[in-house]
Specification:
This protein has about 130 residues and is mainly α. It has one domain: Four Helix Bundle (Hemerythrin (Met), subunit A). About 75% of the residues lie in helices and about 0% in strands. α3 runs antiparallel to α4. The relative contact order is 0.14.
């Protein structure tokens, strides 16, 4: 479903990744970590950090969008819409300091991460 573009980018940045599949997992985990940091920043009224962490999360999702492989059929259309909607939610969360919208995005990415791990043979629970 994904080509090796993201894998190549990480290799260019000297980050050692086992496989493109592992990279997707790391990107999903990154969105979850960045969202947790954004929520913390909102609770602490640290708007600079909030913007920083939400922008990091959005950047990862934009990268996920850029590596979708159109040859994989309808799932690509679904993921394209889903990822774009998550970017929209994070943008609204940023404007409105809305933790619920960040939680909604995190719940989606927890589900994606769990499904991804199952599809690649890794059976790890997502917290």
């Amino acid at each position: 479903m994904y080509n090796n573009a993201a894998y190549d980018i990480y290799n260019q940045n000297n980050i050692n990744v086992e496989s493109p599949e592992k990279l997707i997992e790391m990107m999903y985990e990154g969105v979850l970590r960045f969202n947790a940091q954004a929520k913390k920043a909102i609770k602490e009224n640290d708007y600079g950090k909030k913007v920083y962490w939400i922008n990091r999360s959005i950047s990862v999702i934009v990268e996920l969008l850029s590596i979708l492989d159109d040859s994989q059929g309808r799932i690509v259309l679904y993921l394209d819409g889903l990822y774009n909607y998550q970017i929209q939610l994070l943008s609204y969360a940023n404007m409105d300091d809305d933790i619920d919208k960040i939680d909604e995005v995190s719940n989606v990415f927890k589900g994606l991460l769990e499904a991804w791990r199952e599809s690649t043979g890794e059976r790890t629970n997502v917290a």
